[in-house]
Amino acid sequence: MAFHAKKIVPHIANHTTTKYPYGRLRVLDIDPIELARQLTLFDSYLYNQIKPVECMHEAWRHTEPWMAVNIKEVLKVFQQVKYWVAYSILGEKDSLKRAHTIESFINMASYCSSWNNYNTCMAILEGLNMAPVASLQQTWLLINTKHRGCLENLRKLMSPSSNFRLYRANLMYLTTPCVPYLHTYLDDWENNSADVDVIISEVERHQGSYRFSVLPELLLPIIQELQEYGTLGAVIKLVKLMEGKYESNYDVECTFLEEESRYPFRPIQY
C-alpha cells in the first residue's frame, strides 16, 4: 500500500517540532511526544481508509489481496509497531539506555491514550510485554516509580479482562478524533456479540482528523523503521544475537510461538 505522508491530515496546526540527527532513527534521539504525534497521524490515516464493506463477512480473513485491504493494513502496522518497540529496546546494549527507551515508549503510549489513539497505545503495550523485553530484569529495576505507575494505569485501561470492560466504557463517550483498538471490533463480529451494522457505525463514528502537523522528515523514517525492523524475524534475529550477552537467555522458539497467539497481551508481574 503506497503511503504519502503529506496527504494524511487536511488540517495543519503550529507546534514545536523536534530535530534529530539524520541517519537511522533512534528512539532516544527524539522527543516521545513527537514520535507519538507522528504514529498517531499514521494510524489515524490508515484507520480512516476503512470502508463499511470491509467489515462484512470477515473479509479481513480472506487471502485475496483486494479484500479488506485497509483493515489488513491497520492490522499489519499494529504488528509492526509492536515488534519495532521490542526491537528498539533489545537493540540497546546498555541497561540504562534500555530503561530510558522503555520509559520513552511508556510516555508515547500515554500520549497516544490521551489523544484517544488506543490502537497505537495497545501496540506499544504489547511490544513492552513481549517475553524478551519482560525478561530484562535488571533493566526493569531501573524504571522509575512515575513510569511504573503510568504503565500500570495504561495496562488497567487496556486490560482484556471482562471483554475489555474499562476500555469499552471509556470509548463509549468518545467521538473524533479517535483510533480505536481495531481487534475488539473484529472479535465482536467473529463472536457474534454485535451486529455488523453496529460495528460499521462504530468504525465510522470514530473516523476523523487530528490537528497535528505532518513532519515527513520524521514520519517517513518511522515508516521505514517499521518496515525494516517491525517484524518477528528481525526480533528473533536480534534475540539470537543477544543470547548469553545481555541479562537473560531466551528460548526463542517457545517464546515467539506464545507471542503470536491471538491476544498476546499479558501484564508483566513485578
TrEMBL record:
Keywords: Cell cycle, Cell division, Guanine-nucleotide releasing factor. Gene3D superfamilies: Ras guanine-nucleotide exchange factors catalytic domain. It comes from Basidiobolus ranarum. The lineage of its organism: Eukaryota, Fungi, Fungi incertae sedis, Zoopagomycota, Entomophthoromycotina. This is Cell division cycle- protein. Residues 31-259 form the Ras-GEF domain. GO terms for biological process: cell division. PANTHER family: CELL DIVISION CONTROL PROTEIN 25 (PTHR23113:SF368), GUANINE NUCLEOTIDE EXCHANGE FACTOR (PTHR23113). The gene is CDC25_1. InterPro entries: Ras-like_GEF, Ras_GEF_dom_sf, RASGEF_cat_dom, RASGEF_cat_dom_sf.
